[in-house]
Amino acid sequence: MHAGAEIYPSVFDQENLSMKKIVLAACASASLLLVACGGGGDDPAPPTQASTPAPAPAPAPATLTCPDSYSKITGGVANATLVINAGDIAGNNSATLSLKTPATVNPDAKTCLGKVTSFPAGTVGDVAYEIRATSDFQAATDRRIVITVPTVGTLGSAPSVYFYTLGSDGKATVAPLAAVPTFDIVAGKVVATIAAGLPGLYTVKLP
């Protein structure tokens, strides 16, 4: 080789150089594609589907409770007349609740009757009796409460009767009676017969 002579790559070297350029261009294109598609690393885990929380259990039905001083009946016989007494029957200061049971009786049905000595705020009366009962109470027929109140002598006019529904907080709300009550007025007492449309507080106010 002569000094000062220029060295030109052979045809073979030119072909190799061209192939290297093509490979590099292909690799660069592949790298750009991976970057654009989010590749080039470990594939991320697919998103997990949020689990549906289990439904909350249904609340247990409330159990009817009555004060120990109340008279109680549970269940009963189908198509029978049941009677509950409360108060002082001998002293003409009492109440009697009667009802006829339906053809199908729930053995868990419960009805209570008791005399109320501490009147809820906003109520009116000289005597008061409360009926507490499960929902089966309204399936019974001929429901009536008879309240006897002692008097001095003979009343000149009929007393007043009031009905109140009682909330879970003990608050009393006046409500209409299921029917007009009737009265038996004799010397020493008055007897009020009242249709017991709903459980609640029944009061009698003397004139």
TrEMBL record:
Record's protein name: Uncharacterized protein
